[in-house]
């Protein structure tokens, strides 16, 4: 019961990573304010919680919604102890030579500004709370190309840097700020972000689950609970010497090229050796 008596706020709480974090924090004693635009999902979560979870409708692209969420959570016990700024979706999928200014702004609002405003409106309620901790969801997409569309990747890189710099602003108040970079996690985000018709979503999710099991050195798909465990760690006193940094929870996805861990896949080095052999034999490939 690491969070007994604590008040926590989680955004994007009705599904996937957010939902798993809500259940983890509430399961270890916190009262959790679960925020989402999905009212049916959020209410269902609260109803099964024996009063440990309160659902609040909040669109994280609307700063007034975030302010109202943080005020409501703070009213419960005179402040907020834990905030998990997690809500997002895939954003605009256009490449850099095609994206519109509107698509770029929409993605930044949803993925980056939402986190900045989450910190902005939570921090005044966290000052002086012992063990106050803010955790933000970034992504492996913040660390390199090829994991997501460009606007999302840039916004997530912004979440990483925001987490560092906000940690310095808030250190004087005893508030820690960290980020998590999830790898390929089995949630609805992919089908929510792709144009997949409703009736095909279950089928598409099954294909994604199969892909995710083989995407990284750890031979299983990433689960929302893998990230919720990291959230709980960063929210708890066990990580009290960590601030302004991130945890990479990706099953090894970002270690490097696939051939480094999948010996069936030829690597660049193997190709060079083969070329050397072929050259020595007088027949360059
Ligand atoms: N699943 C992955 O592989 C993965 C990898 C890296 C990062 N992430 C990040 O993890 C976080 C959670 O995503 P997930 O995978 O659990 O997806 P998900 O689609 O299962 O859950 C996202 C939740 O956010 C909510 N949401 C969307 N827009 C919102 C808004 N404007 N205001 C409030 N709530 C909103 C949705 O209703 C949904 O409940 C996101 O920040 C995502 O970018 C996911």
Automatic annotation (TrEMBL):
<dbReference type="Pfam" id="PF13561">
    <property type="entry name" value="adh_short_C2"/>
</dbReference>
<dbReference type="InterPro" id="IPR002347">
    <property type="entry name" value="SDR_fam"/>
</dbReference>
<keyword id="KW-0560">Oxidoreductase</keyword>
<dbReference type="GO" id="GO:0016491">
    <property type="term" value="F:oxidoreductase activity"/>
</dbReference>
<comment type="similarity">
    <text>Belongs to the short-chain dehydrogenases/reductases (SDR) family.</text>
</comment>
<protein>
    <submittedName>
        <fullName>NAD(P)-dependent dehydrogenase (Short-subunit alcohol dehydrogenase family)</fullName>
    </submittedName>
</protein>
<dbReference type="InterPro" id="IPR036291">
    <property type="entry name" value="NAD(P)-bd_dom_sf"/>
</dbReference>
